Amino acid sequence: MPLLEVKHMTHYFGGLRAVHDFNLSIEKGEIRGLIGPNGAGKSTVFNLITGIYRPTEGQVIFKGQNITGKRPHQIAAMGLGRTFQNLRLWRHMTVLEHVKMARYSKLTYGLVGAFFDTRKRRREEAEAEKVARDLLDLLGVYNVAHELVTNLPYGMQRRVEMARALAVEPDILFLDEPTAGMNPEELVEMMDVIRQVHQEFDLAIFLIEHRMKFVMELCQRIQTLVFGEVIAEGTPEEIQNNPKVIEAYLGEEVET
Amino acid sequence: MASKLTNKAAFFKQTPALGWLLTGLVIAGLEMAVGKPLARFLGIGKIPALFGFLIIFKKPSLQFPFIFNDLGIIAGVIVYDILIYLLPLVLVTWLTYRLTNRVAGVLYRKSALLSVLLHILLLYLVLRLWTDISTYRELVTRLTMIAVIVTLSLNVINGYMGEFSTSHPGFMAVGAYVSSVFTMALFTQSDYFGPARLPASLAPVFFPIALILGGAVAAFSALAVAIPSFRTRGDYLAIISLAYMFIVKSLFENLEVVGGPRGLGGQPDLASFPVIFVWMALGIWIINNFVRSTLGKALNAVRDDELAADAMTVNTRKTKMTAFLFGAFWAGLAGGLLAHVLRYINPGSFGLQKLAEVLAMVYFGGLNSVLGSIVGAVSINLLGEALRPLELYKWIVIPVILILVMIYRPTGLIAFREFDLVEIVKPKEIKEGDDATA
Ligand SMILES: Nc1ncnc2c1ncn2[C@@H]1O[C@H](COP(=O)(O)OP(=O)(O)OP(=O)(O)O)[C@@H](O)[C@H]1O
Ligand SMILES: [Mg+2]
Q1: What is the ipTM of this complex?
Q2: pTM for the complete prediction?
C-alpha cells in the first residue's frame, strides 16, 4: 500500500481548470519531484492534498484513509508536514514558539491545563520544548530560539519553517520551492538539509522545484505539470530527455 | 550633570517589586496618619481623593478655559502630593532598595510561589489601606479592578486573536442581569421577584455561583456571534458583534420583568473590595495562564497567519471559538460584579459609551499584553475619574490622548509583552558603581 495516493484529482477555480486528472502514488521514504512552468498548478496540487482546497473531483488517500475534504489540521496531524512557497511564518512569535506550535495536536492537557497551569500541562509543554529544541539544533537555528522570526535572514527563516514542519512528526514532507530566492551557496546547504532530514526521520518527501539541478539530484521520480496536466513522469534521466518537457520549458529559462 | 542625575536615580531601576509595595505601604500609612491635619493646614479641607485632580478642576460653573480652582488651593494640592506621595516615594525606595532586594532574594530562593503570594497579599494591603481614606476612593478602586477584568477579556479577542469584536458591553449586560436576578430572587425582598427565599447569611456563599452563572450565560449567548463569524473565513465579526450588542440592549429594554428601560435596582451588597480583588487576581491568573500556553499561543498563530496555523495541526475554528467564549465569560462575570457594586443597572449603561471605554482601555494599554491591559484599565479609569469635573471636555481630552498613543505607539503602551509574576518578584541586580548608600 502506498503512503500517499491521489486518484483522478481535478480542480476548478471558477471557470479556470487549475488541475486536471492528477494521479500520484508515493511510497514510504521516497523523494518525489513536481516540476512545471509558472502557473502550471503545482502549488494548487499541494493545497488540494493538504486540505486547503477541496478537489472538485477525485480522491486523496493517505495511509489507507480517504482524506478528501478533511480539514488541513486533521490531515497534518495524521503525519503530513509542509512548507510554503512564500514563507508563512507568524510575525509576532519567536522561533521556539513556532516549532512548539506545530506540536499542538500532540497536546492533551486541554482547557483545564491551559487555564490552571496543571502539572500535566507543565510536563507536556516541557516535552514539546524538548522536541522543538532538538529540531532547532538539527537545522542549525538553535541559537536564535528566542528571536522573532522577522529578525532573521531569509535562509534562516526557511530553516525555521522546515523545523516547524518536522515538529508535526510527518511521514511525508511537502516542500514548495524550498530554494526560492536562495543563492547557490544556500542552495547546496538546503540540499544537505533535505538529505539529512530524509535520513534522520525516514521521511517521504514531495517537492516542487524550479531549479533542475536540485530536482535531478534529489528525486527518484519526477512529474512534469503543464496547464494542470501531467505531461511526463519518470526518472530524472527520462524527464530530462523527454521532448515534451523540453518543449514546455522552451522560452522559459531552464535554471541549472 | 544629566548623567549624574540619572545615576542618582538608578535606585529606581534597582528597586524590586517588594520595594515598591513597601513604599506604597508607607505612603498609605503616612496619609492615614497625617493626611487629614495636613490637608486642613494647607487649606484644601479634606484629603484629596484622587491626588487632587478633582479639587484642581473644581468649579464646573465657570466655562472653559476658566475651569480651574483658585491658585492657593492648587498650590496646596501640589504641596500635599509632594509631601505625601512624591517625597516618601523617592526617600523610601532610596533608603530601602538594598534591603528589599536582599529580602526579595531570600524569598525568591526559598520559594518563588510563596514570594508571589506574599507580593499579592502586600498589594492587597496597600490598596486596602489607601482606599480606607474615603468611600469615593474605594468605589473608584473597585470599579477599576472590574475594568481590569473586562479589559483583559477583550484583549484576548482583539489583541491575542487579532479580531475586532465590539460585543463586550452586551456580554457584561447579560452577566449583570443574570447574576442580579439570581441574587435578588434568592436573597432580597423586591417588587420584581417577591420575598427572599434564602437567609441573607448564605448570600456570600452563593455569590460566586451567581457570577459564574452570569459569565456562563454570557459565554453561551456569545455563540450567536461566534458561530456565524467563525464558520467561514472573512471579517464579519465586527459587524455581527456590534449587532449583538444592540440586540442585547434592546432585549433588556423590552424585558419588563427586569424593569425594562428603567433598569433593575436593589441588588444585595455582595461585591465588596476583597471579593472583587480575589476575582481580579483569579481572572489575571487564569487568563495569563491561558495566553502563555501553546493552546493560547495558537491564537497568535491564527492571527498572524491562519492558513499556516491550520497546516501545523492547529484546530483554528475551535481555537477561535474557545477564545471568544472565554472572553465573553469573563466579561459576563465582570458585569455581574459591576451590578453588585452599583446595585443598580439599566440597559442604557451597556451601550456605545461603555464600548468606547473598554476599547480605549485595551488599545491604550497595549495589545497582546496582560500587563498592558492592567495599565490601560487603571490609567483610563483613573483619568476618567480625575477629569470628571471637566464634564464634556473630558470627552475631548481622553480621545486626544488616545490619538497620541495611536500615533506614537500604534499597538499601545505595553504591547506584545509576556507577563510573568515570577520574573516580577525577582530581586533586581545592584550595580556597585551606582551605589549611593555605602
Ligand atoms: N485561490 C485561487 N483562486 C483562483 N485562481 C487561483 C488560485 N490559486 C491559484 N490560482 C490559479 O491557478 C493556476 C495555478 O496556480 P499555482 O499557484 O498552482 O501555480 P504554480 O505551478 O504553483 O506556479 P508557480 O511556479 O508560479 O508557483 C494559476 O493560473 C493561478 O492563477
Ligand atoms: Mg507555486
Answers
A1: 0.93
A2: 0.92
